[in-house]
Structures are given as structure tokens and as C-alpha cells.
Amino acid sequence: MKRAKLRRSVFRTAFLVLLFALPSVGRKHPADATPAQGVLRATTQLVQVNVIVADKHGQPVPGLNREDFTVFDDGEPQKISIFKVEQSQTPAAPVKLPPDIFSNMPERQTGASPAVTVILLDGLNTSWNDQANARLRVIKFLQQLKPSDRVALYSLGRQVRVLHDFTSDSTALVAALNHYRGHVGGELESSLVDDADNPPQWALDAGQGAAQIGENDAMVADSLQAWLIEVNNIEAQYFMNQRVEMTVDALVAIAQHLQGVPGRKNLVWVSGAFPLLRGLDLLMQNGDFSTGSTYGEQIARAAQALNNVNLAIYPVDARGLMTDPSYDPARRSTPGRPAIPNHLPVHMADNFTTMDEFAKRTGGRAFYNTNDIQGSIRHVIEESRLTYLLAYYPAHGKWNGEFHKIKVDVERPGLKLEYRDGDAAVPEGPPAAPTGKKALDAAVLSPLDATAVACEVKPVAIKTRPGEPPSVEMQYWIDARNITLTPAGQQWEIQITLAAEELGPKGESLKGVSHQINLSLNSDTRKSFLASGLRYNEPLPIVPNAERIRVVVRDDASGELGSLSVPLNRVLPPHGG
């Protein structure tokens, strides 16, 4: 990425300290009104567990308190340090931004935060026919949306895309989905692995052709058939790896996008062929994402990102009811989970196992062998209207990446609990330099805004002389709530990386600047920073063919990110003059 590293003088650092103490212009930021409030952030030392409690009729159970719960980490009881009841209510009206201000937090909630639900239509891992069927069933659900529902629509092709962000407007969501035609790509078909015991027709045909060449007909035919299948499977594995990486990248991007949204978040993942299959039998035995699976590292990365932002996955099989004669709806694999038929093809059963595992690791549940996709989504929303957040500092003190099983008990009998079944105990610390740069670059190119660090930009076109390239003054505001203040004697230090990348018509990087903002705050400037955030202005010359500016802010101490896009056609006059 072409970034010019700019050195900032001591004078500018002092100037920044003065800037963030100035009052906001044009509107009042949330930090001004409630500086002590913010999103509850997960750290590796604080483990958060969101619990759904239902009675025997499946209805949420209100009125429980901290003393009713006991949390176990690898069998050892833990002290519940934070207890919170999260109850969905009718959403508050979003704050309307002025048209010349761009933000990664377009809808700042006031008061109670309702549980929100993202419906992800997975075209990458779903056949065209199943995509069309799922789309129609999701439309049926949206047509019956309730005023208290808060739903967003995302799609997954080679990248994740927002079709419509959170709203209770059924008409707007249906219209967005009507414009979505699905993903047409060869990733799914190209990643299918052939079975040597049941070779595909093309391999049989090739073998029969080889049998006609004469000497050692049977041996030649068998060898050619086996070789063709092996070559095809090597290719299939390559495309499978690509699907896994793109799927995991999408899940991580969604987690980063929703990090600034308070409360429980649900991801209804409508898909037909979940790709993370290898080694799940071992995974189920040891409960550890880091070992026993070809894709263990990718699975661990996705699960950690989802759990850190309180986002539960609810996989929904887009294929609907499986036509297997042995299927018995009365038989259940585990209490409260759908049954897995005995004699379905192996890849179908593997898909079910994968769905269950992802749901268990994040506190959701899987839905398969049903044509009632709309009913499955409704169930997700209704069961999460009332949840209990339990957080504890594990007594084991071992932050080595090993998986720890979580168990939650409640004093009252006859209640059913749903929660994630473990924690990876990842060690805390600032991201290593290569990882940090990689995360920064990924945020620049991501189609979704990261929301852990709230930020806003007011771009103002600078008048230039005829023949000179256009230029924009970028007026940044960075919220203080998720910025780390590190004690240093009688002061506090802040380290922020700010990047602005100019992107072309195809999303390609054309030019960028990136610099580090280092501040030392005393007691007075610290109070001003916490109340008003940080303001920072700089001119940005615009290169030819640039269509948008991608802004990324990173709190270097924690690695938390904020990002947003500024479309230049809303800033510059036609032809950039």
C-alpha cells in the first residue's frame, strides 16, 4: 500500500492537545453528554457469557439476578464480576447526521439497546437453486416484521456486502432483497471433492476410454481413473481453502462492523454448504479450535472475533428439508437441537456437524432439515429479546490459548439455558507489527466499516487554482471511549494510527497517507479528551481517478479499529474542479 510516512513535530502534537479540548462544531457528540458510558469491551482477562434462559414452553424467563447463576470454567466455579440484564425494546430514533459529515456510527442508540439480528445470505457456499429458495423464504419473514425487530441484510459472495443496515422498516428490507440477485460463481462447484469409491461419470468415461488402448487394459484404466480423481481433488482442495478464507474473513469483518453496537447481536447465517469440515470429529472430542482441524486456525480466529463482540451465530440450512427416508423428526442428536438423519450423504451430515459446532462455540443454535426458514429467523429474534450477560475474571490465570469449557447453572429447576460452551484464553497484549499492519490494510480494503473506535469526518473541498489538482481538508473527530490511555508517571499516553487511502473505481489503492499520533495528557487535558474526543485536520490532495477516501483509525495499544468511507462525488464539484 502506497503510504507516505509523515513525521509530526512537537508543535503539532501540542496543537492537537489544544484541538480536542475545543467544543464540537455543529452537533453534540455522545461523548460530550455521557463521557463515562461506553460499549462494554471484552478483554482476554474478562470473559463474557451471554445466556438465554427459557421455561419449558420456550418463553424467556425474566426476574433472575446475579445470585441465581453459577459459572464454571473447566469445572471450577467463578466469581461473576459483571451482571447485566439486556432486554429488547422498541428502538429509539437514530440520530440524523448532517449531509456533509460521514460516520462509522450512523445510528447512535439512546436508552435501552434492543438485540439486533443480521441475516447473512451466503451465496459463496450455496448453490444457485438454494439461494433462490432461501431468498423467497427470507422475504416472507421480512413481510411480517414487527416494530420491535431490528434487522439488517448482508450478502456473501467473494466479499461481504451490506444490502441494508439495521431497520424495522419491512418495506425497505424487502426492496433491498428484491434488488439482490444472488452470487453466481464457481467457488462451490470447484471445491467439491470426488469420492474414490464412487467416482464421477467423467472419471468412469475416461477409464473406459483408456481400456480400449490394449495391453493391461484394466490396470491402465484404474490408474488413469485414480490419477484424474487425485488431480481433481488437489484442485478442489485449493478452492476449498479459498472458500474457507473468504468465509472466515467475512465473519471477522462482520464482527468488526458490529463491535460498536451494544448488547447481544445475532447472525443468522443462511447457507447451503458450510465449508469448515476437516477434523471436526477431533474438534468435538477435545473442544479445542487450535488443534485437530485442518482449518483450526481460521475457525479459532472467527470464533474469537465473534465472541469478543457478543455475536452469536445461528446457521440456517438453505437447502431445506432433506429427502432421506430414515429421517425421524422425533429423534434428536442433542436436547433442543434438530436431528441428523442416519443415511444422508457424508457431505450433508458433515454440514450439519459444522453448523452445530459453530453455533455451540458462539452461543447460538443451528436449524436444518426444515423448509421453515422464516420460522427459524423468528425463533432467533424472539428467544434473544431477554438475555443475561455474565462476565468473570477466570481464576486459572493461564492465558496460553488453551480451550476452557464453560458451564452455567441456574438455581431454578426446569429452565433451559443457551450460551457459548467455551473460551480460548487468548493472551492479552498489543498486536505484533506484521499483524497490526495486516489488520490495518484489511480495514482499508474491507467493504464494511469497523466500529470499535467511533469516528467522523467532515471533508471540505479546498479552492485551488485552475490546472491544479483538487484537494480536500479532512476534519477528523475520534471518540475517546475506546481509546486506551496508558499511565506514564503523572501523565497518560495515547498512540493512534490514522490512515487515509484514496481508492479507484475498482477499489484499488491509488495513494495514501498514514501517520501516528502520540499524545501525553495531564489531568486537565485528559478530562478534555474524555469529554470531547480528539480533533485533527489535514489537507489531502486528490489523485486522478480517485472515487472515495477510506479512513481507518486504530488504537495502537489495543489494536481496536474504526473505519469509514467518504465518496468524493459528494465532496468535490464535477470534474474535481
Would you kindly provide a written description of the structure presented here, covering whatever features stand out?
The protein has 577 residues and is α+β, with helices and mostly antiparallel strands. The chain contains 13 helices and 23 strands. It has helices at residues 10-20, 30-33, 128-142, 170-179, 187-190, 201-210, 217-258, 280-286, 296-308, 346-362, 373-383, 433-445, 523-532; strands spanning 3-5, 47-54, 69-73, 76-78, 80-87, 102-103, 116-122, 151-156, 160-167, 265-271, 311-317, 386-392, 404-410, 416-418, 422-423, 455-462, 471-478, 486-488, 491-503, 509-521, 534-541, 548-555, 560-567. Strands 1, 18, 19, 20, 22 and 23 form a six-stranded mixed sheet that branches. Strands 9-8-7-10-11 form a five-stranded mixed sheet, with helices on both faces. Helix 3 links the parallel strand 7 and strand 8. Helix 3 crosses helix 11 (373-383) and helix 7 packs parallel to helix 9 (296-308). The longest helix has 42 residues, at 217-258.
